[in-house]
Structure formats: structure tokens, C-alpha cells
Amino acid sequence: MTSNVIHKRSTNKMSDQITDERAPLVQNEEKHGVSSRCNRWMLLSLSETLQVVPPFFLAGLGTLAAGLLLDEVQHWEVFKTISELFVLVPALLGLKGNLAMTLASRLSTETHRGIEDHVGVVAGYLALDQAQALIVGLLASVIAMITGLAGGTTLPNMLVLFATGLITASLVSVLLGGMMCLIVLGSAHYRFNPDNIATPIAASLGDSITLGILSIVGSLIFHISENHIKIALCSSAIGFFILIIPPLLLYSWRNRYARPAVLQGWIPILMAMLISSGVGIIMGRVAESYQSVVAFLPIINGIGGNLAAIQASRLSTSYNLHGRTDLSEYKTSLFLLLLTIPGHGVFLGVKSLVDPTNMGAPFYVAFFGSALIQVSVLLGMSYILVSLSPYLRNMDPDLYSIPLLTALGDFLGTALLALSTVILDGAGLFTPGD
């Protein structure tokens, strides 16, 4: 089997072949809009703009829904009793970046190459996606448990924490992974660039679906009245999910498409999980002191991660096809940065209609400032991370760029907004919305 790395290195002959494979996408853009080469004043062609903007706003509505949902469930008994669940929230929400968006990016690259064995590609990547989701859920639960031990959490609550993390990770992997396969293959069939569509849709569905499953599963298990039944059920679920990890990894290893990801994909996912768990600890502190701010965290984190994921997916595809980072993508970066303020403005406007919480003008100024800093850093980091591939033994940027960017986006958004809130509160400018 030709290795994934050798397959991606460009030669003149391969470059011509790749150009032919991408021709349908290029022809589609020329058919639906004026080419960007002819309109140098345009940041993106009309066709690409129409592909990027609607999914972005759809993704924003998803993060808005997740923010409103988190604002509600933080008052549920299970979250008040097992506060360590807040540590799980960013790590499991990060599955969309660690796994769903990465899966979408890998599949997008495969479609650009013209791979026709769709069943083999999908089966291999979905099996690996499920195994990685379970491992991330397991490790995130361990970190949450360590945090809980310091607070004297009971054994039943520990098992609820573990079982909730694993069940949520598994269900999210199945739902989002299946959706990503359908979206990428459908986009390629209709000659749209899946890099522009798949990752923001994964983001739009990922946050709200993950948080909803986490809250419902945790609450259902927590409210089982008999402790011995609760312990037996949680232990069985934990044992089952741990036992199916090795067969999933073995199948992925035997799949020629997924094997490179089995070898290369672990370090960035584990690093992203550790960063997200740290974000969860910060989020828990924010929930204790500034409950009204919690609803804004998924919004700033999700939208920033979405914008960076679009850029990283495009850069990764360009690198995999041509062996270099396309510096002309700076126009896309500028376009995405310009979307930050109006995008957040629309989503915060919708939030004020659904949840008319008065946070005060200083808070919103701090929110927009934090968002601009966050997105600027993430877009710059997307170039740096993809360009590092030759120095990382030619590791596929599809495997590491999006997980690290979304985790970094969560950290920056949470830290900047929390710091801004503390400063405003100290200056007497923070208006609690409770």
C-alpha cells in the first residue's frame, strides 16, 4: 500500500492530475459566479460566498442554541450535584472539532482526489471516529473525576460521570459522523466545495446535539432512585464501551484509508482534549460566580472555532493536493474576519429576543473585542499549523489543525471573556443579568 504521506507529495505529473480532479469544482464556480481572478476586488467569488455565508450563519444559530441550552441546564439538579459535569462540557463539545470537523476535512480531501471507494472510506473513518470519541470521553471523565475527588464526590456520582461521558461521546460520534459523510458526499455530487460547507454544518449541529445528549443522559442516570441499579447500569455501560475500543481500532488499522489517521491522529486529539478540560475548569468557576455569562461562552467559542475550521480545512486541502500552503487564501481569512462582528451582532440580537437578559453596554463591548482578538489569533494560527506539516514528519494537517484550533478557540474565548468580566466587575461596570 502506498503511504498516505507519499500519496500527498506533489510532483509536476501529480499536479496535472489533481488539477483535472478539481476541474468540476472550478467549473461550478465559473458557472455560478464571476471568477475571483476577474474580480480582484472581491475577497471571494460569488459562488464561494454563497457556499460560506449560509452555513456560517446556520452554525452560529447552532452555537446560540447551545448557549441558551447551557444557560438552562446549569440549573438542573444533576449539574448542581455533580458540578464536575462542567469539566466534561468543553471536552465533549470539542468532539465536533476533534472528530466531526476533522472527519469532514479528511473526507473533503478524499473527494477532491476523486476517490470512488466511498464505502471503504466512510467505514474506515467512522470506525476510527467512534474509537477516538470513546477514548476522548474516557480520558475527559478521568480528568473530571480527579477534579471531583478533591471535592469529595461519591462513588455513584463518579460512575454517573463516567457513564454519561462515554454514552454521550458514542452517540455524538454516530450522529455527527453519519451526517458529515452524507454532507461531504452530497456536496461533491452537486459540484460544491465541501470544505466550505461540511465543517460549519458540523459546528452548527455539534454543540447543541452534544450538550443536549449530555444533559439528558446525565439527568436520566442521575435520577435512578436505587443506588445498586444505578451502579450496575453505569458499570455495564462503562465496561461495554471500553471493550469495543480495541476492535474498532483494529478495523480502522486494516482499512487502507483510515490507517494513516490511526498512526498520526492521537497527539493533537489528546492535546485538544487536555486544553478543553482546562477550559471546563474555567467554565465551572464562571458558572459559580457569573451565571449570566455562561450562555455567552458557547457563542464566542463556537463561532470563532467555526471560522478557523473553514480556513484550516481549505488550507489543508490545498496543502494535501499541491504540497504547499496557498498564501492566496489570505482573502478568505480577511473575509472570515470581517464576518466576526456582523455575525456576532446577529446572533446576540437573536439571543436578546429569545432571552432578554440585560448585560450592559460595557459587557458587549468587551464581548466583541474578545471575539476579534480570538478570531484574529485563530486565523493566523491556521496558516502556522498547516505550514508546520513538513516539520512534523509530513503529518497530515487534516488530522491536527482543526482539533488544535477549536480547542485553542475555546480557551481564548473563555479566558478572554472571563477576564473581561472580572475586570468589568472590579470596575463596577458589570451588570448581572440574573
Order of helices and strands: HHHHHHHHHHHHHHHHH
How many β strands by DSSP?
A: 0
Structural class: mainly alpha
How would a crystallographer describe the biggest sheet? none
* Global shape: globular
Summarize the SSE layout with pairings.
Layout: H1 4-8, H2 12-32, H3 46-73, H4 77-81, H5 85-93, H6 95-113, H7 118-150, H8 155-189, H9 194-222, H10 227-243, H11 245-254, H12 259-264, H13 266-289, H14 297-322, H15 330-354, H16 361-387, H17 397-426
Helix pairs in contact: 3-9, 3-14, 3-15, 5-7, 5-13, 6-7, 6-8, 6-9, 6-14, 6-17, 7-8, 7-11, 7-13, 8-9, 8-10, 9-14, 13-17, 14-15, 14-16, 14-17, 15-16, 16-17
Q: Could you explain the architecture of this structure?
A:
With 434 residues, the chain is mainly α. It is 80% helix and 0% strand. The chain has 17 helices and no strands. Helix 7 crosses helix 13 (266-289).
